[in-house]
Amino acid sequence: MSATTHALTAMIASRICHDLISPLGAISNGVELLQLTMAPPLPPELQLIADSIRSANARVLFLRLAFGVAGEGQSMGQGELAALVRGWTEGGRLQIDWQPGPPCSRLRARRACLALLCLEAALPQGGEIRVRDDGGLWQLRARGRRAALPPALWEMLTEPQCSVELSPGRIQFALLRGDLLEGDGLATGKISEDEIVLSLP
């Protein structure tokens, strides 16, 4: 993926997420108004809608950071970043242990989110991912049953030369590779039977 294509992909993702946030927010406000007019307990149908809207909002915010424009010179506190990640995984099979760290650039935050999406694909039965910012390097350790990445996808993250035909569900590997190649180099790490370790800038 060329640098130009990479930038256009990020702008498209940012635009889509931006356009989705307004209607989701309007639905969320409408549900809150309905809740105020009803005595508890809420009907299960309304509670399901409220939970689904909250989850959709959280996922869109996370995906906007992962796939959207990083923004030159912008930074994020890791508390804010950890909250986005918790919203993305709420109710799912992944558990994220986010270790506290100093503020980081939005570009580095995006790399961490893309790496989480890559590891999610490697944990089809769920599991735990520990994330730590260690002196400017993200250290990610994923554990779960049958944790595995196909060799070709692993090479996208770790090898200078690779050739992979990707499906839409695996585009995060190409985007993370592009970010890393434009920055300080590819990831390093190892895969074992029940664990995947990644280190990236």
Briefly summarize what is shown.
The chain is built from six helices and seven strands; from the N terminus they run H-H-E-H-E-E-H-E-E-H-H-E-E. It is of the alpha+beta class and about 200 residues long.
Plain-language structure description:
The protein has 201 residues and is of the alpha+beta class. 53% of the residues lie in helices and 17% in strands. It has six helices and seven strands. The strands form two sheets. Strands 2-4-5-7-6 form a five-stranded mixed sheet, with helices on one face. The two termini are 20 Å apart. The mean pLDDT is 89.
Total count of strands = 7
Question: In this structure, how is the largest beta sheet organized?
Answer: 5 strands, mixed
The assigned structural class equals alpha+beta
End-to-end Cα distance:
20 Å
Q: What's the arrangement of strands in the largest beta sheet?
A: 2-4-5-7-6
> Averaging pLDDT over every residue, what do you get?
89
Total helical segments: 6
**Which stretches are low in confidence, meaning pLDDT under 50 for 5 or more residues running?**
none
Give the H and E element order. Answer: HHEHEEHEEHHEE
The share of residues in helices is 40-55%
Shape: globular
Q: Which band does the percent of strand residues land in?
A: 15-25%
